[in-house]
Amino acid sequence: MDALASKKGDAWVKISTQNFISETEWMSKGLLAMGIQAGDKIATISNNRPEWNFVDFGILQIGVVHVPIYPTISDNDYRFILNDAEVKIVFVSDSALFSRIQSIRSEVPSIFEVYTFDQLPQAKHWRTISDLGRQQDDAQILVKSKASIQDDALATIIYTS
Length: 161
What we know:
Layout: E1 2-8, E2 11-16, H1 17-33, E3 41-45, H2 50-60, E4 65-69, H3 75-85, E5 87-92, H4 95-104, E6 113-116, E7 124-125, H5 127-134, H6 140-148
Helix pairs in contact: 1-2, 1-5
């Protein structure tokens, strides 16, 4: 059964439910292996695409707070939101957004790293995290992480103008 479909060029690419679950779990395990903890904040700045969903579900199931940000706001807005939320990791879709975040990165001391969904020579690709997650052998780590999330835990911060 398919969970998602996205258009790449002229073709639709389908993602099965099992593949979606695997990608999400690898993202979670990779972030945990990097030392990301419940309550930390991770931002996504991207158009709608499957990778956005892998990150969203992957961070939520380990108690990390998602900070989704519109890709069309000003650099001043990015600077404010990323600082106010104390974001540790930023995922961006493409080269243009990567350049914009890199240009203000020195003004946002909480940012540990910026990853891209598109493969770019000057950036770390989001797959480096999911590949790290694939290498984790502890099958119980996600079970323990999910069980530790409280019902009233913060899940998402949405900034509005």
